[in-house]
Amino acid sequence: MTLYGIGLGPGEADLVTVRGKQLLERADIVYSPGRLSRSVALEYVDEDAIGDLDFPMTKDEEKLRRAWKEAAEVVAPKAREGDVAFVTLGDPNVYSTFGHLRRTLEAFHSDVDLEIVPGVSAMTAFATALGVEIEAGAGLSLREAANGASPTGPDRMILFKVTDAPATHEGLIEAGYDVRYGRRLFMEQGETLITDDPTELAERDYYTLAYAERQDLEIESPTAAFQRGGHQ
Ligand SMILES: C[S@@+](CC[C@H](N)C(=O)[O-])C[C@H]1O[C@@H](n2cnc3c(N)ncnc32)[C@H](O)[C@@H]1O
Questions:
Q1: Residues 6 or more apart from 22 whose CB is under 8 A from it?
Q2: Which among 37, 135, 133, 144 is positioned nearest to 91, based on CA atoms?
Q3: Tens digit of pLDDT for each residue in 53-97?
Q4: I need a surface site. Which of 1, 91, 123, 183 has the fewest CB within 10 A?
Q5: 112 and 91: one domain?
């Protein structure tokens, strides 16, 4: 039998994929690493099918390794005898807790069959929410900007974990970027906020991302001239 790593999408239950929904509905047990992913999963799974695991909120590597080893010891026998799921918001392979479980299972329980169901990641959902188009031929880099960090370099960046938007903003503006922010995009839980004013985001909320684009960026698309006022 199989352990399914299922991406739930950004938070709205109807953005779970059809495949993800079908597997959730037939899973014997569904493990969830957090409150938000649990509330999305509960749209498709009975409360008594939700499995209990302790997920550590620590950066201590030793504690993390131990906790994931214990979690894998609970999950592995269940996945040998039935179909179980482990859900994460967004996609299971993008900045996700699922990676800890996958690596631990591969190291200590390599006989467990594992299948991953991709989800709509915030990495792509942001474009629709913020009205951004990444044209064919353009590059887009994913970075982390926790605790006020301002990574720079690429022409266009999507920044996760923007926990101190005012500080991140200052660094990005200084480096010549235009920046827009999205908080709780496509999420049922909490209010969605889209803004280019970092003071509106002074209160810390983990589910905040930013899109930064170089101010002097030339958009090379045959139809871009129309938006710039060209009349060819
Ligand atoms: C640990 S990463 C998980 C990413 C997830 N696996 C995915 O593919 O979207 C968490 C970060 O993703 C971003 N994020 C995830 N979901 C979001 C949402 N619905 N709205 C805004 N940002 C989101 C935030 O920057 C957050 O700090």
A1: none
A2: 37
A3: 887 778 899 999 999 999 999 999 999 999 999 999 999 999 999
A4: 1
A5: yes
Q: Between vectors from CA 15 to CA 92 and to CA 58, what angle results, nearest 5°?
A: 35
Q: Are 36 and 85 members of one domain?
A: yes
Taking 80 as the threshold, does the pLDDT of residue 117 lie above it? yes
The finding on whether 10 has its CB within 6 A of some atom of ligand 1 is yes
Cα 115 from Cα 11, distance rounded (Å) = 21
Is ligand 1 within 6 A of the CB of residue 182?
yes
Q: pLDDT, tens digit, for every residue of 164-185?
A: 999 999 999 999 999 999 999 9
- DSSP labels, 152-217: --SSEEEEE----HHHHHHHHHHTTEEEEEEESTT-SSS--EEES-GGGG-S--SSEEEEEEETTP
Using only the alpha carbons of the chain, give its radius of gyration. Answer: 20
The long-range contacts involving 191-198, CB below 8 angstroms and separated by at least 24 positions, are 192/129, 194/129, 194/130, 198/165, 198/166, 198/168, 198/169
Domain count, the chain: 2
Six-digit token string for 128: 């629709």
Q: Which of 37, 59, 87, 89 for mutating ligand 1's site (highest number of atoms within 8 Å of CB)?
A: 89
pLDDT tens by residue, 118-140: 999 999 999 999 999 999 989 99
* pLDDT confidence of residue 232: 57
